[in-house]
Amino acid sequence: MTLKPLTTLAFLGLACLLASGCASTQTKRKVDNPPVPLTPEERREAAIKDFEQRRSTLQYDAALSRWNLGDIKGCESMLVSLLERNPHDRQSRRLLADVCLERTDLAAAESHLRILLEQDADDAQSHHSLGLLLEEAGRREESLRHLDRAAELAPDNELYALSRDASRQQSKIARDSKPASR
């Protein structure tokens, strides 16, 4: 069977078209509407929001640097100032809870951790930290609830599982060592 030259040419053209993919075909592209220009007030608000975000990031970084240098008071001062402006800054509140623990102010650290859990009840790290704090304060039952929850929320986190298991073991030892009441 011989192909006519025109058929052969058409066949080769089709093969080239298929080999080159869709990029070689001409299609009409839908032109998106150009963005609507912002009003001066909207630009001003966007600039302020951007400034505040950058300011918070830089202030957190400075507080973290002070923490790493051992300047606990300086770190705390910066974090308190940042949280006054932005009370929902989770990383700053978490670091402030650590600062409070460093100062052995368990009540303040507990308060910050509970605020974090109010903002996000499924925050495994805050449940874990609060569980450890409550255990340190001798509130084992409440501690176990938070350690269990942390391990449940992050089942792949070995530290959370080990903390929970160690706390359960300590509770069992404490229960077993109590003299029987008559």
Could you explain the architecture of this structure?
With 182 residues, the chain is mainly alpha-helical. It has eight helices and no strands. It has helices spanning 5-20, 40-68, 72-85, 90-102, 106-119, 124-136, 140-153, 158-177. Helix 3 packs antiparallel against helix 4, helix 4 packs antiparallel against helix 5 (106-119) and helix 6 (124-136) packs antiparallel against helix 7 (140-153). The protein is flat and about 100 Å long. The model has no long low-confidence stretch (mean pLDDT 86).
Condensed summary:
This protein has eight helices and no strands. By secondary structure, it is mostly helical.
What distinguishing features does this structure have?
182 residues; flat; 8 helices; mainly alpha
How would you state the average pLDDT, rounded?
A: 86
Number of E-type strands: 0
End-to-end Cα distance: 107 Å
Helix content: over 70%
Characterize the biggest β-sheet. none
Tell me the fraction of residues in β-strands, as a range.
under 5%
Which overall shape is indicated by the principal axes computed on the Cα atoms?
flat
| Helix/strand structural class | mainly alpha
Total DSSP helices: 8
Rg, Cα atoms, Å: 31 Å
Any low-confidence stretches, pLDDT <50, length ≥5?
A: none
Order of helices and strands: HHHHHHHH
